[in-house]
Amino acid sequence: MILKIAVLPGDGIGPEVTKEAIKALNAVAKKYDHTFEYEEAPVGAFAIDAFNDPLPPQTLTLCKTTDALLFGAIGHPKYDNDPTAPVRPEQGLLRLRKELGLFANIRPTTIYPKLVNQSPLRPERIAGVDLTIYRELTGGIYFGEKQLSDDKTQASDLCSYSREEVERIAHMAFRAAQKRRKKLTLVDKANVLETSRLWRRVVAEIGSTTYPDVALDFLFVDNAAMQLILNPTQFDVMLTENMFGDILSDEASVLGGSIGLAASASVGKVHSMFEPIHGSYPQAAGKGIANPVASILSAALLLEHFNMYHEAGLIKEAVSYSIEKGVSTPDIVANSIYTTQDVGNFVESYILKKEIPAPVLDNKTIGKSTII
Ligand code: IPM
Ligand code: MG
Predict the structure, then answer these.
(1) Residue 182: domain span
(2) 113 lies in some domain
(3) CA dihedral for 36, 41, 44, 49, sign (positive or negative)
């Protein structure tokens, strides 16, 4: 397969982890005879410095003409504590999501047996956790009208959803649940918010008319935050709106021991983007301590998106093996001697050396776990 991939390394540790993901993709390309072409473009604080724009027009044009995007990280401390900054790096990412119509953000959490003791939760609570969050990504409070009074003493952000915005991601989440353990939990705040009551009505209707084989339940977001800690194995697919999904996916990502392991896919009708959940982690930039696994697994999600299940499986296997062998960065192995690059090299050589497995014909089995 020939794929043209836009690479947006962004800020902080973004460039160094993305480099390791590309290494894994190149190893796969070599092994399976694919052609992946990359073109790099600026985004985030890096792009503000160079072009005074977190999403320069040439970056957007590139992204609209490639098959997929590999994204690094975004954000810089100089903007974090400056609420008066006229442009912010994050605006680049938000505009990118909106412009490309990436309405569904898929964030899986799986636990590696070797890391059960790294989890902030007790091993018996964490064993067997396998959940995935479907977060709506182009609506809600992130994109509603923003206001600040002239005297700057009052501000508001509008949270708005249309039926269609709820429907399109709901269908995706239900279909994912059908391929997994057939359970979908809608997370909302329907006891308070009108938008949440719309979500509930629409999702309940779609569930009963189109996906009767999926068990649907509802949780208020405060309870869901608590249940993720108390009993995370109860979840299969969680579906939620933009901001709740942002918060819950960070919470879910550390169940496995480190946010540095958590990958995500953002997909729309035409475009798709693959990125780690973590931020730019500026304190670690250039030190070789950033965990590249989230970025490498994001590359695996990219391959799955284009139906390259064997290839994605091999990347996941390589990552599992590196973790099993303790070839990991210090976020998961205290005082580890292995660097970002070492982990990437290990994954690369595993991919290159491993024999291509015999074809597996059962697509349902292959597609069952979206990642890891
Ligand atoms: C994420 C990030 C972004 C978000 C930020 C960087 C705008 O936290 O992808 O989860 O809030 O969506
Ligand atoms: Mg976030």
Answers:
(1) 120-256
(2) no
(3) positive
Same domain assignment for residues 250 and 177: yes
Q: How far is CA 94 from the centre of its chain?
A: 14
Q: Which of 13, 79, 87, 94 to mutate to test the pocket of ligand 1 (most atoms within 8 A of CB)?
A: 94
Nearest atom (ligand 1) to Cα of 275: 9
Pocket of ligand 1 (CB under 6 A): 74-75, 90, 93-94, 246
pLDDT digits (tens, 9 = 90+) for 298-353: 999 999 999 999 999 999 999 999 999 999 999 999 999 999 999 999 999 999 99
Quote the ligand 2 centre to 248 CA distance (angstroms). Answer: 9
Instruction: Give distance in angstroms: CA of 201 to centre of ligand 1.
Output: 27
Residue 361 falls inside a structural domain: yes
Whole-model pTM: value is 0.91
pLDDT bracket for residue 203 (50, 70, 90): very high
Provide the phi-psi class of 149: left if phi over 0, else alpha when psi is between -120 and 50, else beta.
beta
**CATH code for the domain of 236:** 3.40.718.10
Q: Which residue has the tokens 């505009």?
A: 95
Please give the tally of structural domains in the chain.
2
- Give the number of the ligand closest to the Cα of residue 243: 1
How many angstroms separate the alpha carbon of residue 213 from the centre of ligand 1?
33
Based on the fold, state whether residues 137 and 192 are members of the same structural domain.
yes
Q: Per-residue DSSP letters for 329-358?
A: -TTTSTT----HHHHHHHHHHHHHHSPPPP
Same domain, 311 and 355: yes
Specify the residue with its C-alpha closest to ligand 1, atom 8. Answer: 246
Residues 146, 272 within the same domain:
no
Identify whether residues 297 and 321 lie together within a single domain: yes
What 8-state DSSP symbol labels residue 136? E
- Name which residue sits closest to atom 9 of ligand 1, judged by CA: 277
50-75: average pLDDT: 97
Structure tokens at 255: 């169940």
* Catalytic machinery residues: 142, 189, 222, 246, 250
Element (H, E) at 36: strand 35-40
Q: Identify whether residues 290 and 209 lie together within a single domain.
A: no
Structure tokens at 60: 């957007």
Whether 175 maps to a domain, the answer reads: yes
What separation in Å is there between the alpha carbon of 279 and the centre of ligand 2?
A: 8
* Substitution candidate for ligand 1 out of 91, 93, 97, 136 with most atoms within 8 A of CB: 93
The pLDDT-based confidence of 182 (bands split at 50, 70, 90) is very high
Last residue of a domain, one of 256, 280, 305: 256
Residue 112 within a domain: no
